[in-house]
Amino acid sequence: MGNTYRYRGFVLTLFLGFLSVGCATRPGSETYDPLPSWNDGPSKQGIVEFVRDVTDANSAHYVEPSERIAVFDNDGTLWAEKPIYSQFFFILDRIRAMAPDHPQWKSTQPFQAVLENDFETLAATDRDALAYMMGIAVSGTTTEEFEETVKNWLATASHPVTGQPYTSMVYQPMLELLDYLKANGFTNFIVSGGGIGFIRPWSEAVYGIPPERVIGSSMELKYEILDGKAVIQRKPQLHFLNDKAGKPVSIERFIGRRPILAAGNSDGDYQMLEWTTAGKGRRLGLLVHHTDAEREWAYDRDSSSGRLDRGLDNAATNDWLLIDMASEWKLVFPSARLPGSE
Amino acid sequence: MGNTYRYRGFVLTLFLGFLSVGCATRPGSETYDPLPSWNDGPSKQGIVEFVRDVTDANSAHYVEPSERIAVFDNDGTLWAEKPIYSQFFFILDRIRAMAPDHPQWKSTQPFQAVLENDFETLAATDRDALAYMMGIAVSGTTTEEFEETVKNWLATASHPVTGQPYTSMVYQPMLELLDYLKANGFTNFIVSGGGIGFIRPWSEAVYGIPPERVIGSSMELKYEILDGKAVIQRKPQLHFLNDKAGKPVSIERFIGRRPILAAGNSDGDYQMLEWTTAGKGRRLGLLVHHTDAEREWAYDRDSSSGRLDRGLDNAATNDWLLIDMASEWKLVFPSARLPGSE
Fold first, then answer.
1. Residue B5: pLDDT above 90?
2. How near does any CA of chain A get to the CA of B67, in Å?
3. Which partner from A146, B17, B38, B216 sits 20 to 30 angstroms from A253, CA to CA?
4. Subunit contact B278:A143, Cβ cutoff 8 A
5. Which among A66, A197, A249 has the least Cβ separation from residue B210?
C-alpha cells in the first residue's frame, strides 16, 4: 500500500512537472515570450495587446480567425532594401547573363552602363528607360523558367554590403511577428511593390508565406502552346504597379477582405495602412522606422528608396505604431551580422 | 473475478465497437464512401484513384499537400447556369432597383428593355451595349456596399424555373467532391468567368471556399477617401475577363502554382484544363457534361451559355474525365427538386 501511494505520488509529480513545462511554453501564458527579439517597448506592447484583443473570445474586439488577415510590405519591412532594392541587383545580373544573346546592348543605353558597371550613367538614366530595361530583364521566359532563374540567383548572389545571401537579410523580429500571428490564427500576406514572380519562389521557405499569399507588381502574361506544351510567357510590359493606392486595390482584388493588421515602412505603404485601419473594430497599423545606422541603415524623409515622410507626419494621428528599430529590436538580422562585416 | 472479467469483456466489446465505427467513417477505409451521390462510374473511380495516387506517401505520384491545388469553374460546374447565368438575373434586378435614380433609362436601350421585360429586344442587343449595361449594374458603389447588395439579393431572389434560392441550385456531387479534396489536403479555388465580387459574398457559406480563393472576372477599382473614410469604389469598366486563355493567366497571377486538378464544363474552361493537365506528374481534368434533361438541363455543342464543343472532341485524347450527369450522379441538387417543380 505504502509503495503504491509513493508510486502514485511519483506519477503525480511527473504529471504536474509536465503540466508546468506545458505552461511555460504555451502561447498566452505569462512566462512565454512570442517576440524574444523585441525589447519591451511601445511597439511590442501594442502588438501583444492587439493580438490579445482580437483573439480573446470574451473581448469586445474579438475577430473570427477567417477575418484575421495581416498584410506585410516586403522591401524595408521584412528584408533590407539598402543600398537599393535587392530586385535591382537581380535585374543587373540578369542583363549581364542575357547580354551574349544581345550584342547590340554593348552600345545601347542603359544596357551598356550595366555591362560596364557605369553606375553614374545608370543613376542619371530616366525612369522610362530604366523601366524598359527592367521589363526586358524579367521577361522572355515562361513563368516556370523564371522561377528557376530567381532560385538559382538567390542561391549564389550575395548582398553587396554584408556579403550575406539576400534571404539572410530578413528582420528576425519580423519573422517572429509572422510566426506569432500565424500561431494566433492570422493569415499573413505579402503586399509588395516588388515583382510577384521575384518573391514567390522563396517566400514560403523564408517567411512561411506560400506563393498564393504573395501580392506584388506584375508583368503581362500570355498563355500559349509552345512546342505542343501549355506554357505561360512573361511579357516585358508592366501589368500592375503595386504601390501606394495600388496596394489597397490589389488587396481587395486578391484577398477580398479588409485586413485587420498592416505593416509597412515607407510612404508606398501609406494607403495600405490607411485602408486597413479605417475598417470597423480593432485594427493595427505598423511602420518599421529605419533608425539604426549601426546594425542596419538609418533613413526616412530624404531616402530615394523606402522614403517615409507622410507616414512619419501622420503615424501618431492615425494611431499607427512607429517601430523604432534602434531602440525596439534586440536583434536585426537572424545572423546578427552588421552591415559591412564579412 | 467472474464479474470483473465480464465487465472487462463488456468494455472490450464497447472499445472494439468504437474502433469499427471509427473505421467505417474514416476516410481511406474500404467501407467509407466520400462521394455518396456519385454512382460507381468511370468518373468516381477516376477521381478516387487520382486522390489515392497523389496522397499516398508510398505512391510514385505523391504530391506534397502545399501543391495539391484544385481549381473549379463555377457556372455549370458547381451551380446551374440555365436558363442563363444567375448573375444575369442579378444584373436585371439591379437595373430595376437603380432605375428610379436614372429616369432616362425609360427611353434608353437596352435599359428600357429590362424595365419593360422586353426579352426579345434584350436578346437582339449587341454585346457591347449589354456589356455597358452590365458595367453600370455592378458599379457605382463601394466594394463593401456591393457585397451587401449581393447578399441581400441572394436572400430574396429565386431561380425563375425552379423557384429555389440560387444558392440551392448547386450540385450535391460537386459539394461532396470539394469536401473530399479538402479532407485530403487539397486547397480548392474557384476560377470563374463570373464576377469575383458576385461570388465572394457567398462562396464560403455555400462551397467552403473563402473569398481569397475566388478568382473571377473583375471590374476596375479605385481607392479613394470619401467623406474622410478610406473606400474602394467599383468602376463600370471591365478590368479582366476571366475566360478561356484568361483562366490559366489568372491562376498564375493569383495562385502562382500550376494546379493538379481542374474541373469545368464548357469550352471557356478548355485552357484551364489544358494548363493544369500539361504539368509534370499525375494530373486530373474533369468536365461536367450536362446530359440530364430530366433532373437538370441537357446541352453541349449548341448551347449559348456553357457551350462544350472542343472539350467534347478532345476529352478522350487529353485523358480528361467527362462526367455524365445523367448516369453518374445519383442526385443533382441537394434538395433533389426537379427543374419546374415548386
1. no
2. 10
3. A146
4. no
5. A66
A5 inside 8 A of chain B by CB: no
Q: What is the ipTM for the molecules in this complex? A: 0.89
Give residue-wise pLDDT tens across range B245-263.
999 999 999 999 999 999 9
Kindly determine whether residue A255 and residue B212, on different chains, have CB atoms separated by under 8 Å: yes
Contact B223 A66 (CB under 8 A): no
Q: Is A221 within 8 Å of B271 when comparing Cβ atoms?
A: no
CA distance B54 to chain A (A): 20
Helices A42-55 and A172-183 pack at an angle, to 10 degrees, of 10
User: In this complex, is the C-beta atom of A66 within 8 Å of any C-beta atom belonging to chain B?
Assistant: yes
Best mutation target among A232, A233, A251, A317 (most B Cβ atoms within 10 Å) is A232
Give the Cα separation of B286 and A167 in Å (integer).
40
- Cα–Cα–Cα angle for A39, A44, A47, rounded to 5 degrees: 170
Task: Give the mean pLDDT of chain B.
Answer: 91
CB B284 within 8 A of CB B50: yes
Q: How far apart are CA A71 and CA A116, in angstroms?
A: 39
What is the Cα–Cα distance from B277 to B281, expressed in whole angstroms?
A: 9
Closest-CA distance of chain A to residue B275, Å: 5
Q: A5 Cβ partners below 8 Å, 6+ apart?
A: none
Chain A / chain B CB contacts < 8 angstroms:
82
Three cell numbers written together for B147: 457585397
Once rounded to an integer, what is the mean pLDDT over residues A170-176?
98
Whether the CB of A196 is below 8 Å from some CB of chain B: the reply is yes
Is B68:B185 a contact under the CB 8 Å cutoff? yes
Summarised one tens digit per residue, pLDDT across range B33-60 is 999 999 999 999 999 999 999 999 999 9
Looking at the DSSP bridge assignments, the partners of residue B231 are B224
Residues from chain B that touch A210, judged by Cβ atoms under 8 A, are 66
Q: For residue B179, what is its C-alpha cell? A: 469536401
**Strands, sheet with B69-72, edge to edge from the N-terminal-most edge strand:** B229-240, B214-226, B187-195, B69-72, B261-264, B284-289, B321-324
Rounded to an integer, what distance in angstroms lies between the CA atom of residue A45 and that of residue A284?
Answer: 12
Chain A: give the shortest CA distance to residue B44, in Å. Answer: 27
pTM of the model as a whole: 0.89
CB distance B252–A210 less than 8 Å? no
For chain A, say whether B222 makes contact (Cβ under 8 Å): yes
B196 CB within 8 Å of a chain A CB: yes
Q: State how beta strands A69-72 and A187-195 pair.
A: parallel
By the CB < 8 Å criterion, does A209 face chain B? no
Q: What are the Cα distances from residue A324, in Å, to A47, A285, A292, A316, B298?
A: 14, 14, 8, 13, 65
Share above pLDDT 90 across residues of chain B, in percent, rounded to a whole number: 87
Contact B218 A66 (CB under 8 A): no
Whether A232 sits inside 8 A of B218 (CB atoms) is: no
Picking from B304, B312, B316, the residue whose alpha carbon sits closest to that of residue B288 is B312
Do B262 and B286 touch, CB atoms closer than 8 A? yes
Instruction: Specify the higher pLDDT residue, A12 or B63.
Output: B63
- A256–B200 C-beta distance less than 8 A: yes
> Residue A29's pLDDT band (boundaries 50, 70, 90)?
low
Query: DSSP strand E in A196-259: where?
Result: 214-226, 229-240
CA R_g for chain B: 23
Report the range of poorest mean pLDDT among B28-32, B145-149, B265-269: B28-32
Q: What is the pLDDT of residue B28?
A: 52
B286: nearest Cα among B325, B331, B333: B325
How far apart, in whole angstroms, are the C-alpha atoms of residue A194 and residue A75? 8
